[in-house]
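Notes, p. 3: input format for complexes.
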Amino acid sequence: MLLKISTTYSPATDLGYLLHKHPARMQSFTLTFGKAHVFYPEAHAEKCTAALLLDVDAIALVRRPHGRSTEGFALAQYVSDRPYVASSFLSVAIARVFSTALSGKCKDRPQLAETAIPLNAELSILPCRGGEKLLRRLFEPLGYTVTAEQHGLDPHFPDWGQSRYFTVKLENTCRLSELLTHLYVLIPVLDDEKHYWVGEAEIEKLSKHGNDWLAEHPEQESIVRRYLKHQRHLTREALAQLREEDAQETDETVQMEEEAEVEERIGLNELRLSAVTETLKQSGAKRVLDLGCGEGKLIRKLLPEKQFEEIVGMDVSHRALKITQERLHHDRLPEKQRERLRLFQGSLGYRDKRLTGYDAAAVVEVIEHLDLPRLAAFERALFEFACPQTVVLTTPNIEYNVKFENLQTGNFRHKDHRFEWTRGEFQSWAADVAKRFGYTVVFHPIGPEAEDIGSPTQMAVFTR
Ligand code: SAH
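Output follows (464 residues plus S-adenosyl-L-homocysteine):
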């Protein structure tokens, strides 16, 4: 069983610092089920590859009291695939051998551990119960480009058909700790098997390693179910925990009010929503998305416009969606109106099939809530995968903040903002996104304009 991790980050040999394993040395580790070896098949400034070779002791496995994962037929212990495939053994090895990297720490290159770098992982052999489809559904929403080569049951007898074994390549620009965490959790999920007893401690592990990404993953339920070996009570508990964390993390209601207070005096919210509605109308769009719809203020303005045949509101926060549903009296709307409107939970950091095929998307006051790695994932998820004809996107103009008397100097308009941009910063970001994904972009100020500092909100309209 072999896992290879490569980077083309320059200098690529910094991978050695990130993994805490020197490229010039081979190291071996003794684990309860065998040995793990780490070495570098290539290590130069342009490209560096680290290999984790797992040598599972097949005999020791059979002797272990809980070790027989293929119990159930007479020759099981002689024909086990366990020594040769990526499974929960590999997850344990990753946690043991790369524990510091897995936790995202790096003494010598702390900055680099925080940086998204081009990474490539190759796994031979990965068993996928659920086939290539599931493999893609698990990794693609996390931004990976997946290449999978399926292996026949027996190379000498092609008629026997395909096996569940794949050689898999995963490519992404992300932090090394993210890649390791995704592998740690998703390998046993694909294998749908664990070599050890699964109890409450597994929920903790899942919560620790899935904290940043699982709550928003479209396959969250099947990941949790499989990770916890289909034990219903554990699955229920874990899902409840994840949702609670999600609700806490994204409970933006109070903060939105805070922001509204800062901007209230100039009726900015109303101006912004009118400008977005008008732009969507002019684009000729019939089917529109409101991404990060919050409490549904834009949706309320879109609903009376007959031009919009289908309106979809998506937000990461269950709580905001519930408020939207209540405020719009969704369940009491006449059937025709109800059919025009759909609300669902989802995250902008992930590719999502439900968002494809729309004429336009509004992203109103949302991007400033995304940290930079997530902003990069959002760019691809929206402009490359969902790729509506028109994107109408607004964000605060930080230059205007000096005009808000009730905002202390240096503060953002609300606590959860990860950044607020000047007009120059926003325009160069938007121009770069447009160029990369084949859009053109124009900018419009929203709200009263002041000399030298512009208007409080800036809007970019992307068209493809
Ligand atoms: N567009 C709304 C709400 C803006 S507040 C309006 O103008 O009134 C920002 C919203 O973005 C919040 O509702 C928050 O839950 C949502 N959000 C933050 N991160 C998100 C993500 N990754 N995916 C989807 N929505 C997100």
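The radius of gyration is 25 Å.
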